[in-house]
Specification:
There is one protein chain. By secondary structure, this protein is of the alpha/beta class. The protein contains three helices and eight strands, in the order E-H-E-E-E-H-E-H-E-E-E. The strands form two sheets. A four-stranded mixed β-sheet has the order 1-4-3-2. A four-stranded mixed β-sheet has the order 5-8-7-6, covered by helices on one side. The chain is globular and about 40 Å long.
Length: about 130
């Protein structure tokens, strides 16, 4: 059996979400419509759909997490060099994201972490 997995996240403003991920260089997955904008992440084209929050709540038949009070998940993006991690932090800030953990060395890694304008979290990590 061949299995494809993707993520569905909520977005308050699809135009803002589209602009943010486009500025970071991610490729759109299909066309944006009134309900969602979708992007491809990584070499295997992991898909993240960003749905208008009301649409996602309806589909999930429940409430979404309040990301100002907690976390849902953190996605990790790999980097090959420390300079690449640093570049990500600069690009995220310029695109309107929040680098809540600036680039630093820890354990056997070098990385940073950021939240997109809706609060969805990502790590950028280079393993040493």
């Amino acid at each position: 059996m061949k299995v494809k997995i993707w993520a569905n996240l909520g977005a308050k403003n699809l135009d803002r979400t589209e602009e943010f991920y486009t500025k970071l260089g991610f490729k759109r997955n299909g066309q944006k419509n009134d309900e969602l904008v979708s992007f491809l992440f990584g070499e295997d084209d992991f898909i993240i759909h960003f749905f208008k929050e009301d649409s996602l709540k309806k589909g999930m038949k429940g409430e979404l997490s309040d990301l100002s009070k907690g976390n849902e998940v953190i996605f990790t993006i790999s980097a090959e060099t420390d300079a690449e991690v640093n570049d990500w932090a600069v690009k995220v800030k310029a695109a309107g994201g929040d680098v809540f953990s600036p680039p630093e060395a820890f354990q056997s890694m070098y990385g940073c972490a950021f939240a997109d304008p809706d609060g969805h979290k990502f790590n950028i990590l280079r393993w040493k």
